[in-house]
Amino acid sequence: MELETQIQACFLQLRAEGLALGIDELLDALKLAYAIPSDQLPTLLGMLWCKSLDDHMYFKSAWQNTETSPKPDTEPTLPDDLINPQPSNESSELNSSDMLPGEIDKTEPETIGALPLLVPSRAMSADYAEFKNYYPVSRRFMAYTWRYLKREMPDGPLKQIDFDRTVEIITRQGFYLTPAYRRSVIDHAHLVLLLDHGGSMTPFHHYLRDLVETAYFESTLAQVDIYYFHNVPETSLYFDLYFTQRVALTAIIEDLDENTSVLLVSDAGAARHRNDPIRIIVTEDFLNHLRRNTQSIAWLNPMPRDRWSNTSAQEIEQFVAMFPMNEDGLTQALDVLRGL
Prior knowledge:
five-stranded parallel beta sheet
């Protein structure tokens, strides 16, 4: 297909410029080409492949070159090191110390070769000392916004002086003996992040990573729990993004209370423009289970609102507060989680 040829040509140009792209990035891009309209492909490819302003500049130039250049008679071929790795000349045997934990040697020693899934990161230009990302919501904005998600309650130890009450006592008694104390205010905010990972959410993995890191490491939230699912949150979710550590929904619900805020992040079928009745029913049932213990539930959708029409997202929006994944959307979602 012409679109596949264009993606491969752009991929090879970016690798020649030194971008950290491997076979996984190419395969994700080819899958993405079938999932979204072609006019939106450059934007999402830029988010998938580029990690700096320099990368975006090289991508924009390479994509324009592949659009304006004449179509070749034959499709571009990938480098041999990506599709046909060669064994090392230094050693024809694989030592047991070189194997990964749990890895089984299923090939002959003379055919062993390293598949470069990801080349080393390319150094950034000196003009941009601070790493910059170009997602709908910047990492800095995320870290700043989490500060507003508080559930402060005066249930700490009696060690803070209550000046107003002290003055009231002095006025009533006519003399001063000891100050009046009040309990310390403690933040009981509990954030639960439910993240759709893989499939049509692949272009937004960097955004999900920033969302997790800022909430977990750069916020003052008392407790942050992260769970992953694929497409539909069902009776079980996962602790890790590789879906190897399962946790039952009942166990998650037991840990929810009135101080818990639940934020879901998923395209809800809008990325591939699908309207799946089963997905809608399962999602509604999942949300009803969450509402047994907390009403503070919001949903961020990485696809713009105009892409929700005639998809599962449009139906799911009817029974949960759903917002687009941008700065305004994150702010509004936090307002819902705060009970405003």
